[in-house]
Automatic annotation (TrEMBL):
SUPFAM superfamilies: Thioesterase/thiol ester dehydrase-isomerase (SSF54637). The lineage of its organism: Bacteria, Pseudomonadati, Pseudomonadota, Betaproteobacteria, Burkholderiales. Keywords: Hydrolase. The keyword Membrane does not apply. This is Acyl-CoA thioesterase. GO terms for molecular function: hydrolase activity. Belongs to the 4-hydroxybenzoyl-CoA thioesterase family. Its EC number is 3.1.2.-. InterPro entries: HB-CoA_thioesterase_AS, HotDog_dom_sf. Signal peptide: none annotated. It is an enzyme of class 3 (hydrolase). The keyword Hydrolase applies.
Length: 147
């Protein structure tokens, strides 16, 4: 991974389980928020417009997670998103959550551009593909490699 998009997240009461640590599904809520902010802030693609007006979705089709150390209410974790692969219809990303230099959570995801009308995968729209390539030129797959 070369370029990353970083976002601090303060751990709130709502993120935690009765043990006082982040309930693991909450990390996935945080990663979805991170992807949305990455589109809005770094890629300059209005995520709400993409979903509501353009009817282009970006569901997770593959997910691998590793939970290294618990995070607690009041801590601030920094989520870092990097792109590992850009295909014809899919984007591979890696997200790492750190607090005080320690890795707390790591996720590898594959996102697929999808028509929200048909529910079928679609080619990554040109403006999104261009923004992705500018953010992570190392991750663009050749025509033979693209899927």
């Amino acid at each position: 991974m070369n370029a990353t998009f970083d976002m601090p997240v303060r751990i709130r009461f709502a993120h935690c389980d009765p043990a006082g640590i982040v309930y693991f599904p909450q990390y996935l809520v945080m990663t979805n928020m991170l992807v949305e902010e990455w589109f809005n802030e770094r890629l300059s693609i209005d995520y709400a417009h993409m979903i509501q007006a353009r009817r282009v979705g970006l569901p997770i089709v593959k997910l691998e997670c590793e939970f290294s150390k618990p995070s607690r209410m009041g801590e601030t974790v920094t989520l870092a998103l990097g792109v590992t692969r850009i295909g014809r219809r899919s984007i591979g990303i890696e997200i790492v959550a750190r607090c005080a230099g320690e890795v707390r959570f790591r996720a590898a995801q594959v996102l697929v551009t999808t028509s929200l009308e048909s529910g079928q995968s679609i080619d990554i729209p040109d403006d999104i593909a261009s923004a992705l390539a500018a953010f992570a030129p190392h991750a663009v797959q050749s025509e033979e490699q693209r899927s």
